[in-house]
Design a protein that fits this description.
Elements lengths: L2 H12 L16 H11 L2 E2 L4 E2 L4 E2 L3 E3 L4 E2 L4 E2 L3 E3 L4 E2 L4 E2 L2 E3 L13 E3 L2 E3 L4 E2 L4 E2 L4 E2 L4 E2 L4 E2 L7 E4 L4 E5 L2
Parallel strand pairs: 1-4, 2-5, 3-6, 4-7, 5-8, 6-9, 7-12, 8-13, 9-14, 12-15, 13-16, 14-17, 16-18
Antiparallel strand pairs: 10-11, 18-19
Helix pairs in contact: 1-2
């Protein structure tokens, strides 16, 4: 990560995450400063981004156009978010997992693996959903509130449950 991105990421973490939400009458447009910090801190970012307060994001993510990310969301490294995506509050996009293959070693000593998450265009991720490492959310899909997604999600599907499974298809 270059110096400029590092500086803007620092500004986002220290100031931007704490600015008022876009819907607050007292925000005075300060939420736009948060978007400015994010646009310059991440790998790439399209227009029309709206991110509410207290979103923990990695600078190693790519964000498409017209993306809305609600409060208290956690987005880890190597995540790609398509266009016209809605991410509700409390969602966790987890890209890091512990290794556990060596039965002779404690899990905490076996290291970690990183597998990116890819979110297609026009996806809605419901409140408190958890997306596990390496998952691809197909375009036009809906992830229901509280779902734990452990497998790739097909395009045009609605998934829910723990673990998440297809409930129906939108098309």
């Amino acid at each position: 990560m270059n110096i400029k991105r590092s500086l803007f990421y620092f500004l986002y973490v220290t100031i931007g995450r704490r600015l008022p939400p876009s819907y607050a009458p007292y925000s005075l447009g300060l939420h736009k400063l948060r978007m400015f910090f994010i646009r310059h801190a991440v790998v790439s970012c399209g227009s029309g981004l709206l991110v509410e307060p207290n979103v923990h994001l990695s600078p190693n993510i790519e964000i498409g156009h017209n993306v809305y990310i609600d409060e208290n969301v956690r987005i880890r490294t190597r995540t790609t978010i398509g266009n016209d995506v809605l991410i509700a509050s409390g969602v966790q996009l987890i890209t890091v997992n512990h290794k556990f293959d060596d039965l002779e070693k404690p899990i905490r000593l076996q290291g970690e693996t990183i597998s990116g998450i890819a979110i297609g265009d026009d996806v809605w991720v419901g409140v408190n959903a958890i997306i596990l490492p390496g998952i691809k959310l197909g375009a036009h899909s809906i992830i229901s509130a509280g779902a734990v997604v452990t497998k790739d999600v097909p395009e045009w599907s609605v998934v829910g449950g723990v673990p998440a499974c297809v409930i129906k298809y939108r098309k």
